[in-house]
Amino acid sequence: MRAVPSTDGSPGQLAAWSSSDDELTEALWRKFSETAKALFSVLIDNPGTKFNGDELGRLLDLPAGKQSVAGVLGWPGRHCQAAGRPWLWAWDYAEGENARYWMTDEVADLFRPARARWGGRPQEERLSP
């Protein structure tokens, strides 16, 4: 199992997501709020596509845009860390811009079956930011 640095700066390593995490992804997905499931569905259905917080806020009708996105990600981040895994989303800051969020193909493939089994809003078509 590959280790990755902790996402919150705490000491230690977290185990990378792997194909053997079926039960873990389902357990985590069931803990996520409906809004978090909707946000992750956008990322699952568009792996590798980077969305900034304002774009996600508009797509999901979040009242405070990028600030709402940051709030939505709080508990899922805690749940992932408690499970010994890194956040299921990736993020960066483009030069002079706000945070951008995406999901890798590998992580999207792991969470897609959990969404299918336990609910969540799949996007009807792939979105462009």
Keywords for this entry:
three-stranded antiparallel sheet, single chain, 129 residues, two-stranded antiparallel sheet, 47% helix, alpha+beta
Plain-language structure description:
There is one protein chain. By secondary structure, this protein is an alpha+beta fold. Helix content is about 45%, strand content about 10%. The chain has 5 helices and 5 strands, in the order ββααβααββα. It has a 3-stranded antiparallel β-sheet. The protein starts with a strand and ends in an 11-residue tail after the last helix.
What's the quick description here?
By secondary structure, the chain is of the alpha+beta class.
Number of strands: 5
Categorize the overall geometry.
Answer: globular
What about the largest sheet?
3 strands, antiparallel
pLDDT averaged over residues:
86
Tally of separate helices:
5
The computed structural class is: alpha+beta
Strand content: 5-15%
Estimated radius of gyration:
14 Å
Order of strands in the sheet with most strands:
3-5-4
Helix proportion range: 40-55%
Q: How far do the termini sit from each other?
A: 34 Å
Order of helices and strands: EEHHEHHEEH
Low-confidence stretches: 124-129
SSE topology sketch:
Layout: E1 3-5, E2 13-15, H1 22-31, H2 34-45, E3 51-52, H3 53-59, H4 66-82, E4 90-93, E5 99-102, H5 105-118
Antiparallel strand pairs: 1-2, 3-5, 4-5
Helix pairs in contact: 1-5, 2-5, 3-4
